[in-house]
Amino acid sequence: MTVDDRLKQAELLYERAVFGGDSSAPAAADRCLDAVEADLALARGRIIHARFLEERIEEAGELDLFERAAELFGRLDDARGEGEAVFWIGCYHQVVRDDTEAALPAFERALGLATRAGDRLTESYVLRHLGFADHMAGRLDEARAHFEESTRLRRELGFLPGVAANLVGLAYLAAQQSRPDAAAAHLTEAGQLAADSGSAGVLRWVAGAREELALP
């Protein structure tokens, strides 16, 4: 159901409780409203995170929103939603707080939930960020495997901006592993995919990688 559907359902359940004497209706309405609140908390947390990526200034409340979303999705037995929210908890620790050690348990839990729910998009995000963790720890082969699996999932989903973003990461790894031809090929494909999908932000990452890696 959409948010509007859930709100309408909650209103109907209110009427059933008050006018129809249905004692079970309030609990059912609570579930509808918990789902609305979970979606809203997750969406608001992601917007705060997007501002952080642009401004690099932490805003209060981001982690609280993701934790609230995870709690509500868990209460609703919504593995897909809970997996996504738990991933963002890990992302907060890794990206905002620069604390990969704190992020890893959340990533592992999110991967399990996403796999159970068949949520390949969230799987791709978790694998990408596990790749970052491996890269920062100097485990380049493991990082490459995580990025490649994330990229495979994103190609299957047709998520072209995400594929392009991963190819930038793979380019850096290839350069570190003394594979300059592979790095250049990754950036060429990333640039094309980013241009085709109108992903100006990823195009900036491609340009920055070319400059940093001294590739044409």
Summarize the model shown.
The chain has 216 residues and is mainly α.
Word description of this protein:
It is a single chain. The protein is an all-alpha fold and 216 residues long. The protein has a domain at 146-216. The chain is built from 10 helices and no strands. α3 packs antiparallel against α4 (79-96), α4 (79-96) packs parallel to α6 and α9 (180-196) packs antiparallel against α10 (200-213). It is elongated and about 70 Å long. The mean pLDDT is 97.
Keywords summarizing the entry:
216 residues; mainly alpha; 83% helix
Strand percentage lies at under 5%
What's the β-strand tally? 0
- Multimer state: single chain
How helix-rich are the residues, as a percent range? over 70%
* Amino-to-carboxy terminus distance: 49 Å
Count of DSSP H/I helices = 10
Low-confidence stretches: none
- SSE-based structural type: mainly alpha
In this structure, how is the largest beta sheet organized? none
Question: What string, H for helix and E for strand, traces the elements in order?
Answer: HHHHHHHHHH
Radius of gyration: 20 Å
Q: What is the average per-residue confidence, as pLDDT, rounded to a whole number?
A: 97
Shape: elongated
